[in-house]
Amino acid sequence: VAYFEKMKVKIASICFVGIVLIGLLILRQNLNGVIHKRNTMVCPDTRLEHKDEKNLPLIYGITSTYKRHVQIAELTRLSQTVMHVPMFHWLLTEDAHSKTSLVADFLNQSKLSYTHLFIKNNLTSGIVKDLNTRNNALHWIRKNVQPSTNAIIYFMDDDNTYSLRVFDEIRKTKRGSAWPVGLAGGLLHEGPIECKDGKAVRWNVHWWPQRTVPIDMAGFAVHVNVLFEKPTAEFTDRPDIESVFLESLGFNRDNIEVNYCKDVLAWHTQTKAPVIVE
Amino acid sequence: VAYFEKMKVKIASICFVGIVLIGLLILRQNLNGVIHKRNTMVCPDTRLEHKDEKNLPLIYGITSTYKRHVQIAELTRLSQTVMHVPMFHWLLTEDAHSKTSLVADFLNQSKLSYTHLFIKNNLTSGIVKDLNTRNNALHWIRKNVQPSTNAIIYFMDDDNTYSLRVFDEIRKTKRGSAWPVGLAGGLLHEGPIECKDGKAVRWNVHWWPQRTVPIDMAGFAVHVNVLFEKPTAEFTDRPDIESVFLESLGFNRDNIEVNYCKDVLAWHTQTKAPVIVE
C-alpha cells in the first residue's frame, strides 16, 4: 500500500509540473501577444492610433523628387510625417538617370518601408514637370501589387504639408475619395467644402472652375482596385493633370467619395529656393 | 499509514499550487517590466531611441510664430518633428496681443508637452522681427525653471527643417554647443565644418565673417544653467543676433562645444508666401 501511495505522490507531482509548464507556456504566449500589441499600438504621442493595425489598408505614398539644394531637407521633413503613419509604404521616384547615392543613403537610414524608383522626366517638352516619375510609380504598382490587395495610393509632393489626420481620410477610400487642400488654386482651401452622406455638395474653386474634379494632387486618394480596372489610365501632360487623371479612372464630382470637408488636412506649401553664393 | 500518505499528497498539492502561484506572480512582474520598458523604448521607426529616457536632459524648444496663411501648415510640420523627440517641451511664443484660438486649438489637439506664450513684437522700429517673442521665452524660463534643472534651450523657427539627429547633439550640450546649419548665410552649410576634441577647428562663413560665433539660430543650444549665470543676457536688435546673444552668455569660437560637424542636421528652409485671390 505504501508503495502505491508513494507512486500516487510521484504521479501527482508529475501532473502538477506538467500542468504548471503548460500554464506557463499559455501565459507566455498571451503576454507575448500583449507585448506585440503594445509595440504596435502604444505610442500615443507619436503615432496615429489604430486598434488593429494589421487589418488597415496599406497606403502607398507616391513622391516624385528631383535634385536641388533643399531636396534632403524636404525629404527629411516629409519622412518625419510618414514615420508616424502605420501600414505605409513610400514609393519615392527620383527624377534621375539612376538612383543617386544621396537619396539612396537617406532612404537607407530612414528605417521606413520604401521602394526607391528612378526615371528621367522630360522637362523640355511639356507642362507637367514630373510626368514620368508619377507614371513610373503607377507602373510599379500595376506590376508589383496584387490586384486583390487592400491598398490605396496617395500622391505626396515632397514640399507639401500633411496633417496626420489626412491618413485617416485616405484609409476610408473605397474607390476614390477627395478632401480640401489648403493654399491651392489661389484659395485658402480648394476642393469640397460642404459634404453630406459621403458626397460633396459644394466645391470651392477659383482656378479653372470647369475641371471635372477640381482638386489638387494632395486632395485625393485612389484604391489600387481602380488602377487594375483601368489598366492604361495614367497622368498626361495637361495643366489640369489631377482632374484628367481622375476622369480617366471614372471619377467625377458626383461619384468621388467625400467623407470629410471641414478642416484643411493637407497644404500645398512651397519652399523658397535658397540663395547660395558658393 | 494510508491516512498519512493521503495527507502527504494533499500537502504536496498545496505546496505545488503555492509555488506555481508565486512563480506566476514573479513572471508577471518581470513581464510587466518588459512591457513598460518596451512602451517607452521600442518604437524604433517612430522615435529617437534612448536607453533611459527619463534621465535625459529636457529640451526646451523655443518657437516664435506669427499670423500668416502658412502658419498652421508650418506648425503642423514642426509638431510632427518634435512629436518624435522624447523629453521635449515646446515653448511657443505667439506674436499677438493675446493667445489666438487658432494656435491654442492647434496646440491643444497636438498632445505635445507645451507652454503657449504671447507678446507683440515691435516690427516698426527694428532689424529683428521676433525680438520680444524670443526674449519672452527666455523670461519664462528664468521665472519657471529651477536653476539646477538639467535642461537645454534650442531656438526652432517654425519654417526650418530639423533632422531628428540634431536632438542628440542638443542633449550633449554641457554649457553651449554648435553645429553646422544647411542653407544659411549664403552657404550650403554655415558654421563649424571641422571639429576635433569637442572644438571647432574650421568654420565655414560667408556672410559677416567677423561675427564672434558665426552660426544661424538653428545651429546652437545653451544649457539653462548658463541663463541663470548671466541673468540679464537676452536678444538685442542686431543683424548678428545669434552671435551677440552667444557672446553675452560668454561664448566664443574657442569655448563653444562642437561635438559633431560632418553632416547637416538642421536647415534654414523658408516657405514661399502663397498667392491667394480671395
What does this protein structure show overall?
Chain A has 278 residues and is α/β, with parallel strands linked by helices. Chain A folds into two domains: 1-46; 55-267, Spore Coat Polysaccharide Biosynthesis Protein SpsA, Chain A. Chain A contains seven helices and eleven strands. Chain A has helices spanning 2-41, 71-82, 101-110, 131-144, 166-171, 224-229, 241-248, and strands at 58-65, 88-95, 114-119, 151-155, 161-162, 176-178, 181-184, 187-196, 199-204, 220-223, 266-267. In chain A, strand 7 (181-184) and strand 8 form a beta hairpin. Chain A is elongated. Chains A, B: This is Galactosylgalactosylxylosylprotein 3-beta-glucuronosyltransferase. Chains A, B: It catalyses: 3-O-(beta-D-galactosyl-(1->3)-beta-D-galactosyl-(1->4)-beta-D-xylosyl)-L-seryl-[protein] + UDP-alpha-D-glucuronate = 3-O-(beta-D-GlcA-(1->3)-beta-D-Gal-(1->3)-beta-D-Gal-(1->4)-beta-D-Xyl)-L-seryl-[protein] + UDP + H(+). Chains A, B: Homodimer; disulfide-linked. Interacts with PXYLP1; the interaction increases the 2-phosphoxylose phosphatase activity of PXYLP1 during completion of linkage region formation in a B3GAT3-mediated manner. Chains A, B: It is found in: Golgi apparatus membrane; Membrane.
